[in-house]
Amino acid sequence: MNLSFFIASRYFRSKKKRNFITILSRISMVGVAVGTMALVIVLSVFNGLEDLIRGLYASFDAELKIEAALGKSFIVTDDWLDQIRHTEGVEVLTEVIEDNALFGYRGVQKVAKLKGVSDNFLDQGRFDEGYFRGDLSLGSDTQPEAILGMGVANVLRVDLDNEMELLTVFYPRASARAGSIDPRQLYNQNIIRPVGYFSIEKQFDDEYVIVPLSFVRDLLEYGDRRTALEIKVADGYRIRDVKRSLRNQLGEGFLVRDTDEQHASLLRAIQIEKLFVFITLTFILAVASFNIFFSLSMLAIEKKKDIAVLKSLGAKDQLIKSIYLKQGAIIAFSGAAVGLLLGFLIVWLQDSYGLVSLGVASSIVDSYPVKMVWTDFLFTSLSVVTITLLASYRPATIASSVKTIDHL
């Protein structure tokens, strides 16, 4: 066994009376354990929230979305759409026309996003997550039907059981006559029957009304223009590979974005918040490691005679310094090991049994979502190592500078 490690471990496991230094060392170990455990738990919660948001958005958004790089819409042709459909890895292509419109229902009005989609939209399991009530149908060209976000339905007080009341949709007319005194010449309007509503995430619930593509095309007078194309990737193909192929095929005039890129700002905010929480808890861990500094400093003072004896036997300054560095490492690593184990256990119990609930009624998730990632354990361990070396270096230097002649 390495001599410096042997002496350091003997100091740590000393059977002598429990003096203040020993108590301080144990407190140091507990502080490191608690800080490490907190880091593992909090980072796992952020991972879980990030995964939850990705899952909720992925249930509503397309795996890939094609939009114009400039402008609001673009013209499509049957041949061009067929080329995209036959791109390797493309399973479903959904045409989309989306814009803000005014909705009215029994005297109540609200501005929301009108999203017209082609028939295959509902074949992709878009509402498998969250809550859905009513009929999962968009009707036909002659009898169109609408699916509303729960927030929109609540504001408009939509009654799905009342088949006599229809939803009225208003949109500014592109070809409105200048100077007309008839307000009906300024906008298009049409009626549609609401048949269901969904609840996935507040952003979607409060903004979206899903209707057939033909309904929006006629109301907005879009003709062959579309605002987006949504793509479902076939099984066995990687999204990034299909995205790369589509970008090469479509050129710089179009944007091809996956689900993360469609909500890049929100996911980036979560990652930045996770980073700042990691830094904050690392500082708390550093404060807890001050106990290591004080305990080693006092140990160096108490063991001056032992150090003098070792030096008289030929021990070099580097050996003395190594003893105290390893003493700090033993304290910190013991605490870190306990903290990592407790953090793993608590996160596993939360993931398996949902011990801590969100505290709000939700049909999507009942308890705090968590997810363990090995890199969190790695960075936490590296933080402990760095803090330990910094906290132990000064006491080790003090111990190595003891003069033999003064303490024998």
TrEMBL record:
Location(s), subcellular: Cell membrane
Keyword terms: Cell membrane, Membrane, Transmembrane, Transmembrane helix
Transmembrane segments: 20-46, 275-301, 329-349, 372-393
Residues of the MacB-like periplasmic core domain: 27-248
Main location class: membrane
One Gene Ontology term, aspect cellular component: plasma membrane protein complex
UniProt GO BP: lipoprotein localization to outer membrane
Family to which the UniProt record says this protein belongs: Belongs to the ABC-4 integral membrane protein family. LolC/E subfamily.
Protein name: ABC3 transporter permease protein domain-containing protein
Native source species: Anditalea andensis
